[in-house]
């Protein structure tokens, strides 16, 4: 029998090449121009699961993109791990800012990844991280040392809100029955400071439209005499935060759980350098809610951000015009206990209330989801912690993340099991950004660590 370390050193070039092939398919779920590519990616994942040793693999149709399901059941009396991941990716825009084409993966060395990183859209989020699980399974089946049953559920709509998965899960609770859910779709602090994600924020995403006059107007003939929707929208957005950077929507903070001083002190122990943080982003100061640290602001506190704003003339040169309409896309990151549908409603009511006479406001909710926190006193967390101890040589730090995987809260509700978030990406990997990448070291370290999770989870389940 080979150890995982031996297996990786024999097969690592193939592991990298296979991931590169997967990254070449532009599975952008947000853009229907890529729908055939999204479907082709699902087929490729199916294939890879078969080759990795699943004894049943199936493409589950949904109202949207299919869900790839695969399983290897070795003994009904053993515990079952359900692996979740996503095969869709974010749009690559703005394309011009990529140093190499987003769907033509290249390996380049960086300061943080001296052993090289794979640059491509989806390298880290989530194809690379999802594929670590496929390769870990390949190792365990090839050696006949898989200690648990395993089920895979890989979806194609995570980046657009997981609507079809939310449809699929309650209809298939028996098929998906498990003892723990394992996901690699988050990050860790640094390659020498591993961490396990213990929380995700919720999300409410809305689009707003402000309409003034019924047509675009000459800004000389009408300017000053009618409401300019872009001016008004900017003012309304600016009013959503006060001078302390608190969100002004009435009721917004009502259900926010305030962490105790002890919990905040515990959080503050995680290694973090504000100087390096600022340097990496080339900013001279951080900015955020008064009385909270940077790590608190981006994990345990809710936020409101404009993701895009448009209207009027943005072509070359100058055009004197008062646009009829202005738009913005706004997201609110939520913390556990805040209900995303309730927050969406509070936003809508408030935004309509603050609109001055002279404009009409329309608020359209997009998608959302609840936040999630997982306790660390369960065997899933303990198995993960032991796995990192074996492969990193140190105990991982539990840390709440600012990102969202809305479907995780639904898993708990429908499948009644805890999710363990073993992420191997770094914040500097530029997910959702131009030049997204995933360290080769991180990719292989993930493949190495996962089999230890299975081993310890099986042992702790006895
Ligand atoms: N993998 C990310 C979420 C993530 C990344 C969590 C890093 C923690 C650390 C996921 O694919 C994602 O991008 N989620 C979206 C929400 C979704 C509904 C579009 C997000 O967080 O913006
Ligand atoms: Mn993801
Ligand atoms: Mn993502």
Automatic annotation (TrEMBL):
Pfam families from the entry? M20_dimer, Peptidase_M20
Q: Which InterPro entries match?
A: Bact_exopeptidase_dim_dom, Cyt/Met_Dipeptidase, Peptidase_M20, Peptidase_M20_dimer
- Chain ranges of the Peptidase M20 dimerisation domain: 199-357
Keyword terms, alphabetized: Hydrolase, Metal-binding, Protease
| Protein's UniProt name | Acetylornithine deacetylase/succinyl-diaminopimelate desuccinylase-like protein
In its keyword annotation, does this UniProt entry include Lipid metabolism? no
Gene3D superfamilies in the cross-refs? 3.30.70.360, Zn peptidases
């Amino acid at each position: 029998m080979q150890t995982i370390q031996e297996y990786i050193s024999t097969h690592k070039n193939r592991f990298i090449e296979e991931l590169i092939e997967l990254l070449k398919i532009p599975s952008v779920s947000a853009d229907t121009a890529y729908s055939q590519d999204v479907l082709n990616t699902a087929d490729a994942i199916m294939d890879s699961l078969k080759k990795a040793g699943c004894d049943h693999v199936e493409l589950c149709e949904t109202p949207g993109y299919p869900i790839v399901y695969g399983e290897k059941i070795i003994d009904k009396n053993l515990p079952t791990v359900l692996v979740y991941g996503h095969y869709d990716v974010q749009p690559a825009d703005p394309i011009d800012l990529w140093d190499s084409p987003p769907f033509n993966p290249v390996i380049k060395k960086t300061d943080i990844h001296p052993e090289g990183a794979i640059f491509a859209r989806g390298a880290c989020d989530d194809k690379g991280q999802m594929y670590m699980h496929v390769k870990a399974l390949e190792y365990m089946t090839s050696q006949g040392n898989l200690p648990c049953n395993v089920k895979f559920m890989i979806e194609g709509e995570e980046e657009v809100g997981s609507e079809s998965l939310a449809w699929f899960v309650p209809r298939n609770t028996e098929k998906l029955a498990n003892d723990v859910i394992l996901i690699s779709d988050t990050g860790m602090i640094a390659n020498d400071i591993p961490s396990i994600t213990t929380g995700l924020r919720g999300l409410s995403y809305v689009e707003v439209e402000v309409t003034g006059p019924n047509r675009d107007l000459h800004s000389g003939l009408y300017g000053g005499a009618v409401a300019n929707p872009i001016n008004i929208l900017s003012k309304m957005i600016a009013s959503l935060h006060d001078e302390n950077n608190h969100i002004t929507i009435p009721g917004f903070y009502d259900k926010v759980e305030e962490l105790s001083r002890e919990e905040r002190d515990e959080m503050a122990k995680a290694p973090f350098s504000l100087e390096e943080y600022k340097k990496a982003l080339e900013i001279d100061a951080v900015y955020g809610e008064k009385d909270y640290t940077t790590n608190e602001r981006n994990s345990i506190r809710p936020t409101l951000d404009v993701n895009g704003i448009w209207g009027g003339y943005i072509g070359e040169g100058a055009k004197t015009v008062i646009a009829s309409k202005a738009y913005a896309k706004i997201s609110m990151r939520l913390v556990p206990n805040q209900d995303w549908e309730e927050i969406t409603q509070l936003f809508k009511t408030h935004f309509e209330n603050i609109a001055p006479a002279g404009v009409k406001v329309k608020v359209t909710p997009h998608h959302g989801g609840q936040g999630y926190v997982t306790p660390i006193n369960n065997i899933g967390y303990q198995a993960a912690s032991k796995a990192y101890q074996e492969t990193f040589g140190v105990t991982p730090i539990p840390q709440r993340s600012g990102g969202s995987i809305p479907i995780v809260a639904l898993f708990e509700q429908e499948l009644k099991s805890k999710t363990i978030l073993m992420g191997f990406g770094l914040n500097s990997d530029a997910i959702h950004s131009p030049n997204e990448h995933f360290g080769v070291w991180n990719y292989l370290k993930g493949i190495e660590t996962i089999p230890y999770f299975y081993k310890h989870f099986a042992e702790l389940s006895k």
